[in-house]
């Protein structure tokens, strides 16, 4: 397979290449061609700039095993940046290509939305100002972009944010106004019957965060979800700990204030998905500060990536063993 796909000096591993919109398209087309028995790729949604929003479904090739299995959804890149997208592609690569993980697609159906803000991601790749929004033009091109992570139809209007189109956290004119938001919401709606877990992979952090984002409360119903977050954090720390701990807490407590219109709250409150998390990966800001005082270990990003995959595998183990 690799001999047919690779040009001279091309790398065989997706985690070692620059991640852009074209990379995602080529990667998924190759997997569809060579691993079509276990992968479905849907491309029914596009962004304002006409980039494709892909839905990837990974499942056993055994038709009997395809029926009535729990589902786990991973969604990456709402806040632009390439590293969460790379992690999502890495997970796809491991599940499809590694025999040691074959049980992960035999016992669970995986729904992966590998890049949910490709316009923002491409803008970030040009090393312009820090960017977290999409690139939808606003008010006759006076400004650009809505913060997708604040645009979901859950407590959307509960936070006292100014409707300032020039703000980096502009939440949009209405809830679910954006193509990207509608894409994610529709995917959750489509798979909700068997969906046991939804994880939103986001940039610049090192933590697993559980509901709620819009308020600082805990409920008995969340006790199991918070316990599972602790188990995931322990597994990540076991594999990649050393420089900094992988934390687990609520989204509200991590941010220090309310974040309304959050996809995790939407999945939990509107659709009753029992395990809903925001997973922050690759601590850009912390690493940038630390590197001024000490040299980060060689291969540190790879260590983190393997740690995050271990955490995702731990979530799979919990779902597959029906400890829910």
Automatic annotation (TrEMBL):
Its cofactor is Zn(2+). It comes from the Eukaryota. One of its GO terms (biological process) is proteolysis. GO terms for molecular function: metallocarboxypeptidase activity; zinc ion binding. One of its GO terms (cellular component) is extracellular space. Residues 17-300 form the Peptidase M14 domain. PROSITE patterns: PEPTIDASE_M14. Coiled coil: none annotated. SUPFAM superfamilies: Zn-dependent exopeptidases (SSF53187). Belongs to the peptidase M14 family. This is Peptidase M14 domain-containing protein. It comes from Leptosia nina.
């Amino acid at each position: 397979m690799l001999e047919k796909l690779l040009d001279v000096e091309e790398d065989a591993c997706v985690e070692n290449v620059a991640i852009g919109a074209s990379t995602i398209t080529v990667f998924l087309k190759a997997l569809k061609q060579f691993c079509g028995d276990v992968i479905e790729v849907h491309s029914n949604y596009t962004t304002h700039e006409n980039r494709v929003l892909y839905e990837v479904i990974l499942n056993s090739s055994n038709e009997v095993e395809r029926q009535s299995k729990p589902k786990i959804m991973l969604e990456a890149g709402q806040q632009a940046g390439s590293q969460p997208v790379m992690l999502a592609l890495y997970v796809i690569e491991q599940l499809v290509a590694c025999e040691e993980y074959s049980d992960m697609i035999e016992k669970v159906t995986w729904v992966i939305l590998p890049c949910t803000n490709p316009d923002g991601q491409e803008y970030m790749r040009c090393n312009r100002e820090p960017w977290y929004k999409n690139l939808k033009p606003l008010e006759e091109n006076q400004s650009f972009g809505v913060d997708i992570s604040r645009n979901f139809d859950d407590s959307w209007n509960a936070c006292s944010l100014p409707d300032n189109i020039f703000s980096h956290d502009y939440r949009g004119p209405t809830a679910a106004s954006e193509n990207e938001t509608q894409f994610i919401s529709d995917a959750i709606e489509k798979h909700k019957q068997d969906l046991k877990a939804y994880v939103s992979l986001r940039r610049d952090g090192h933590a697993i965060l559980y509901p709620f984002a819009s308020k600082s409360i805990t409920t008995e119903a969340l006790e199991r979800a918070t316990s599972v977050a602790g188990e995931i954090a322990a597994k990540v720390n076991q594999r990649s700990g050393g420089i900094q701990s992988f934390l687990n807490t609520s989204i509200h407590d991590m941010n220090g204030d309310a974040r309304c219109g959050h996809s995790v709250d939407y999945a939990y409150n509107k659709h009753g998905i029992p395990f809903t998390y925001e997973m922050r990966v690759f601590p850009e800001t912390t690493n940038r500060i630390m590197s001024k005082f000490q040299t980060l270990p060689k291969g540190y990003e790879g260590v983190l990536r393997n740690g995050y995959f271990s955490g995702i595998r731990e979530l799979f183990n919990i779902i597959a063993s029906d400890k829910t």
